[in-house]
Amino acid sequence: MPEYWIISAPGPQTLEKLNNATKPNNVSNNYKFHIPDLKVGTLDTLVGLTDDLGKIDSYVEAIIKKLVSYMEEILEDQKEMLKENLHVNNVDLCTFLTRFSWDMAKYPARQPLMHIAEIINKQVQQIEADLKQRASAYNSLKTSLQNLERKQTGSLLLRSLGDLVKKEHFVLDSEYLTTLLVVVPNPLSKDWEKTYESLHEHVVPRSSQKIFEDNEHSLYNVSLFKKAVEVFKQKSREKKFVVREFKYSEEELASVKSQHAKLKMDKSKQLSVLFRWLKVNFSECFVAWIHVKALRVFVESVLRYGLPVNFQAVLLEPLKPKKLRELLNKFYSHLDSSLASGQIEDIPGGLTSFGVEEYYPYVYFKINVDLTDDKK
Predict the structure, then answer these.
(1) Which CATH number applies to 167-247?
(2) What family does the database annotate (predicted)?
(3) Where in the chain is CATH 3.30.70.100?
(4) Residue ranges in the chain modelled with pLDDT below 50
């Protein structure tokens, strides 16, 4: 299921009672959602935290989705590998959720609630900043490689010609002769072959050969005296033959090939490092996100049920969501019968400002673990 619900209700036996109610009709799978004894603080602090935690919840979820989206982007034609890489603490998302336990080392439970929220917020802000920096560096490298490869493909009128020609296509180291490369539209190929020698009296006879052909154009070489080049170019333009500017240099061609190989290797290395970073920080963000959910459940439960703290949180995997909602509303209607319907218009005044969209007699928060966009 892509969706889980966290609810809480007064008393220590919430999970046992829910199991008895939901198991007979296979309405949901239920798990204890462990929240430690956190510091309550003052009522004013809790009320203020409700709003802050709602914003942090949305923020962390947005960063998680950014991480997932970027993982999907850099996988390119291997997007089917995405879900198998979305693990948290080396287990899949559902396993992590159903076995959730509070991380005391990262988020000390005896710290004030506001301080824990600030730890999470700063942690995720740093991950967001690192993501921007790493993504920018990788995208820059990827763009450089794409630009170089784009020059090696496409129309003969624009593409790099270095990978198409060979040394034997040119007259080199001659004081008087040079070789030009000419792009000819395919319908005019026969015209070129019949007339190129007549474009100038100083064209070397039978010096032209077809080097390469694509769907639209053909690439020819032609040798001639250097003093005839400008007139030859003009005559070629008149007949719609395009002389490409090109100077054969083995050193330059080798440099381009070396640059291409280096960019490909750099991209591969950086991709590997970036993908590992994304996996690690997806896990970090997801852990942080579920701790935010736990904080929200705790704060809302104390505000709803009062002191001393006496509630139990349960993680539900809805198997029949509509029936589960009806069962929960009926099961907990005694907590607030006027709100059993869960309608938005029934929300008490002031709670809408805290981002509460679904209000029920019990504390309720939703976790959507389908973080990929299958429509892409």
Answers:
(1) 3.30.70.100
(2) Belongs to the V-ATPase C subunit family.
(3) 167-247
(4) 340-355, 374-376
